[in-house]
Amino acid sequence: SCCRSQASGKVMSGEEHFSSKKCLAWFYEYAGPDEVVGPEGMEKFCEDIGVEPENIIMLVLAWKLEAESMGFFTKEEWLKGMTSLQCDCTEKLQSKFDFLRSQLNDISSFKNIYRYAFDFARDKDQRSLDIDTAKSMLALLLGRTWPLFSVFYQYLEQSKYRVMNKDQWYNVLEFSRTVHADLSNYDEDGAWPVLLDEFVEWQKVRQAS
């Protein structure tokens, strides 16, 4: 393991000096000949750090690396991001997991991660997220914290929407933070996108029946 000191064989503390050279060598353990960590390398990387690819930690890490595309890390993204995290090996990154998770509890960081997820997850030749990707990303980001999430998910399942645009995506977060679970404070004259107006109507009909 790269964090062991040869003399004592003991695991060094995370304070051990960060090495760009070691960080680059670590990158090449996963990168292909095109100098990009692609799907295969990413799978091995996730295995080595002990995290499932769909774990939200991977999204927070990608945000920290400012990665442009889901499933890929470029050399530049890796070096810049891992340098800012001061990680040049698996153990150091694992020691940052609590820090990465804590970003989700910070309101402004979470908002940034949520907004980042839209561009990260969409096909780069599309301006919107296809609805299945949107649903799985929303489940990852809001599934545990938004009481109405499962109802909203059901609504999307049966709706005519095939894509979600950026404005709708941003507003879903705002809605989840400001509108009560019983929808009592929903302002129909507010500037909500039609998608959310229709969701509220749909849910009120269900509640009434």
TrEMBL record:
GO BP annotations, alphabetical order: protein neddylation
InterPro entries: DCN-prot, DCN1-like_PONY, PONY_dom
Gene Ontology cellular component terms for the protein in this record: nucleus; spindle; ubiquitin ligase complex
Entry superkingdom: Eukaryota
Pfam family, one: Cullin_binding
Keywords: Cytoplasm, Cytoskeleton, Nucleus, Phosphoprotein
Keyword Methyltransferase: no
The DCUN1 domain, residue ranges: 18-204
UniProt-recorded Gene Ontology molecular function terms: cullin family protein binding; ubiquitin conjugating enzyme binding; ubiquitin-like protein binding
Subcellular location: Cytoplasm, Cytoskeleton, Spindle; Nucleus
Subunit details: Part of a complex that contains DCUN1D5, CUL1 and RBX1; this interaction is bridged by CUL1. Interacts (via the DCUN1 domain) with the unneddylated cullins: interacts with CUL1, CUL2, CUL3, CUL4A, CUL4B and CUL5; these interactions promote the cullin neddylation and the identity of the cullin dictates the affinity of the interaction. Interacts (via DCUN1 domain) with UBE2M (N-terminally acetylated form) and probably with UBE2F (N-terminally acetylated form).
Function: Contributes to the neddylation of all cullins by transferring NEDD8 from N-terminally acetylated NEDD8-conjugating E2s enzyme to different cullin C-terminal domain-RBX complexes which is necessary for the activation of cullin-RING E3 ubiquitin ligases (CRLs). May play a role in DNA damage response and may participate in cell proliferation and anchorage-independent cell growth.
Name listed for the protein in its UniProt record: DCN1-like protein
Native organism: Centropus unirufus
